[in-house]
Amino acid sequence: MKNTRKPSGRPDVLKVLADARPEELDPSRLVDPARQREDLARIVAGSTDGRAARFLAPRRRSAFRPLGAAALAAVAASVVVVSTVDWREPVDRPTAQPPSSAGSDAPGEGADLRVDGHIELLSAARQAESAVAEGTYWQTTTRSENVDVAGEEGHLFAVRSASTDEWSVGVRPGTGSLEVSGLDSVTEPRTAADKDRWRAAGSPRTVEIEVGKKAGSGRLVTVIGTRRPMVMHTNVDDKIYAVGPDNVTYKDLRALPSTSAELRRHLERLYARDNGADTGTSNRSAWMLRQAGNLVTMPVKPAVRAAAYRVMADLPGVRVAGRVTDPLGREGVGVDFPISYRGPLGTTRERLIVDPSTGAMLSDVLVLVDPSARAREAGLAAGTTVNYNATTRMSWGERQITVPGNARS
Amino acid sequence: MRGRRVTHAQRFRDVYEECYPRVLAYATSLVGRQVGEDITSETFTVAWRRVRDVPDPALPWLLGVARNLVRELRRRDAHQYLLAAEEAQRISSGARTDAADVAAEVAGRHDALQALAGLPEADRELLTLIAWHGLSAREAAQVLDCTTATLTVRLYRARRRLEKALEAAPAAAPEPEPEPAPAPPAETPYPSHREGAPA
Asked: Which residues on neighbouring strands pair with residue A179, listed in sequence order?
């Protein structure tokens, strides 16, 4: 370092830092003509493929588009999703099984309890209409879990990562928005059998999991055990949520149309802006369902929340299933996305679960419908819930949430 | 024939060719190589869709998009983000390279990376945009979406904190003659573009 001193004798720290740049971050080492060409071809040819289900891109450079697309929408948009495929319900398929990780077989439950889910969803809409006054912070608490496959070929096991997230959005001028994620965060073998296989592998503290990517798949390292929580400021000035391609203020949110016809048209316009060329009815329905599902979790006017449920109920290709159980054991109505997703665990399908008696969004779950060979080997059968976000609290608060002392930013 | 006019498609290809490795390097510094590749791909997907809006130079704009995409990933999938960010941290702290190379030259580098790792996230982000990704203060301001004036102040403070951290670095460990380390030409300005980006 001593050779980087300026004539004054003080080291130019930026120079020192520049020289210390790790090789992995040296652009000249990252040139990969074959990969770049392949990527370029994909981008120029059909850039819309899979995009809507993955990253929702910022519309303006300055527009941090953080959020709305998030809380309940997390799973399908996960980076593990490689591509979308049309989900076609087999004609002779009986009522949907509750996508609960435990009782995926639950024989008999479907037929007996089957009710007209569509009507129940509209009942949720009515319930949503009677809601609360305004406050200062709109706060949601969610419990989430994600399942991955780890280990070496022939000795694979499943790991689950679970945590609690708190998100508190300030809606009054001068208030901020904070998200604390990863509270009680833990990663561990999923079942007793997985634990045995993990032990047989020498109880490694870090394991590699496979993640899906645009081209092929990659590997990430995960640590077995607990983690510190993470804090993030989620607002940009007075922009507090994303609705479609836009970051919106609280005022914008309160100005959303409150009849289902107008709200649908509003969302359709946003879809057109967000996606340019139409990418098919299924994709559009999926996009609309995600947006409507997001709106329900935001501090919109009760009439808007109700309209969002009505929009969901009428989307082409979206199936509303009768009573289903969410991962926390709560009963609700299932709203199935019209497309399924392919990832390293196999083909998965997403479902929102709504409580028709309160109009509350309960969960967003991702269920394995066609496990990959790896997933099968790790004991993940069709019907297993491989990712969920369950909302356990959604209400107004007057005080900002506290950040745990051990949280990292 | 359209004369010498560059079409949007050609312009996009040029920008892609020129900036791809640098966007990937930036994304890798945030989320590691695996997820970084996807972020890079998404960044250029956005650029292609909005090719008319891409300014010249394009790099700060592209890094701004990549940064937004990472924030969005973080908001949307904290679990995946965390794993990816931990991978990035291993890279940025030199944990990935140092083990293989115990040369004396590495000691200084190690100190610098340790000092950096101890700074607040906002400082790290700003300092590396300039020192590692080769941006000017004005360009870094574009990426971080603040004014150049604000950035200058922040940069001044971040530099001071890095200096302090470096001074506090374990000078205790007697460095075995670090002098022979290849000294870069003194005139190289720190936001050097020696990464090979076309001038």
From this structure: A167, A232
